[in-house]
Design brief:
Order of helices and strands: HEEHHHEEEHEHHEHHEHEEEEEHEHEHH
Distance between the termini: 83 Å
Number of helices: 14
Largest sheet: 8 strands, mixed
Number of domains: 2
Strand order of the largest sheet: 7-6-15-13-14-12-10-11
């Protein structure tokens, strides 16, 4: 028996060594990847060696990230880990919770008073520099706030509605706040959020559009005025990519197309490209299928319609606005869409040159507090 046990241990050791050796060889022979389709993100490249970075420790840290990102069959190992976590009852992975009915929810940390104040102050600063411009602020809650009953037990999710209300209370009365939470809450039994992605669906965006129109004094188009078409039913979104949770049903993306077709020109200004559609259907063949709306995020997009009213709208936004803007195109002659995360020109000069009548600041509550680019509003106003 002793000899048999020794043989098993020896065989196990050799198999382990063989596996480690094989993985080392495979990793050496495998070409580095710049982008992960499964995780929908840029992967770490090999860091350049410098004595200074080695001494400071940054080289070691960066190299560990590089090895982790470029490890052979990374997607397989991530899937095995999350499957094992699910077997033992773990419901969170990389800041994402697995809830009921296959819903994935992202964590939200309640901002402190200073973070709320500085973002409100940035909006006020820009408002003072553009007094003649009507402004509307819409902060959209995520699915975790509306579908809390589907969260796993003991999920640590901050109160998104409380954070939204803090901003609303700090804003001046002549900056019109758009209450979208009640409209979404009344429709929470419908598919207003994707299950595997952090965005609202086209249906959720439609209800947001209705709430915004009411605040702006615009009569929104009814659902009957749109031809709702299935774009894809094979969409796995950002939370699916980030979490590593697998064996979930994909989402569907619907497009609300006007029954009466309008002439549209869409200019991607920085890229120097022009199209005649608000939708980039080729994106449906890629991992990030949500980019079907306005071809994803860009510094400046200029939309020109055949609407004869001459009204010009400026939208400062994150990606939540991408699926709502097609609804607004029915009501304005021109819409400029600015993403402050990428826009490095003067927003104040753009307002002065373009003579907008209205401005909408539209973010989901996560991006509004986690991304500091909204603070650029105070910088451009100086």
């Amino acid at each position: 028996m002793i000899g048999h046990d020794k043989q098993i241990r020896t065989m196990t050791a050799w198999m382990l060594l063989l596996f480690i050796g094989a993985m080392v060889v495979i990793n050496i022979l495998t070409t580095d990847k710049a982008f992960s389709e499964a995780e929908n993100r840029v992967l770490e490249g090999r860091p350049a060696f410098e004595l200074r970075s080695l001494i400071s420790g940054t080289f070691t840290t960066n190299y560990e990230r590089y090895v982790s990102d470029q490890f052979a069959f990374r997607g397989v190992w991530v899937g095995i880990k999350t499957d094992a976590d699910r077997l033992v009852g773990k419901k969170d992975s990389n800041g994402v919770y697995l809830g009921e009915d296959g819903y994935l929810f992202q964590q939200f940390t309640l901002p402190n008073a200073a973070e709320v104040e500085e973002r409100s102050a940035a909006i006020h600063s820009f408002h003072r520099a553009t007094q003649g411009l009507n402004k509307y602020v819409m902060l959209v809650p995520t699915s975790a706030a509306l579908l809390a009953d589907k969260l796993p037990a003991n999920a640590q999710i901050g109160d998104e509605r409380a954070a939204i209300n803090q901003v609303r209370e700090l804003l001046r009365s002549d900056i019109r706040f758009v209450e979208v939470y009640p409209a979404l809450h009344d429709r929470r039994e419908e598919s207003i959020y994707y299950k595997t992605d952090h965005h609202w669906t086209s249906t959720g965006a439609y209800y947001g559009y209705q709430a915004l129109c009411r605040r702006m004094g615009i009569v929104p188009n009814s659902e009957a005025e749109f031809d709702i078409r299935l774009a894809t039913d094979k969409f796995y979104g950002s939370l699916y990519s980030k979490s590593g949770f697998r064996h979930l049903q994909p989402d569907r993306i619907d497009l609300y197309l006007p029954r009466e077709e309008n002439q549209i020109k869409v200019e991607y200004v920085d890229e120097g490209r022009t199209t005649n559609s608000l939708y980039e259907l080729e994106q449906l063949n890629k991992k990030d299928k949500y980019a079907v709306f306005l071809n994803g995020n860009h510094p400046l997009i200029r939309i020109t319609t055949a609407n004869p009213n001459g009204k010009r709208l400026l939208v400062v936004k994150d990606s939540y606005a991408n699926s709502l803007i097609p609804f607004l195109a029915e009501h304005f002659a021109e819409i400029d869409v600015v993403d402050l995360r990428y826009y490095d020109e003067s927003l104040l000069k753009l307002v002065q040159d373009r003579q907008f009548q209205d401005m909408v600041i539209l973010y989901n509550v996560h991006t509004f507090f986690e991304d500091i680019s909204i603070l650029n509003l105070s910088e451009v106003a100086k």
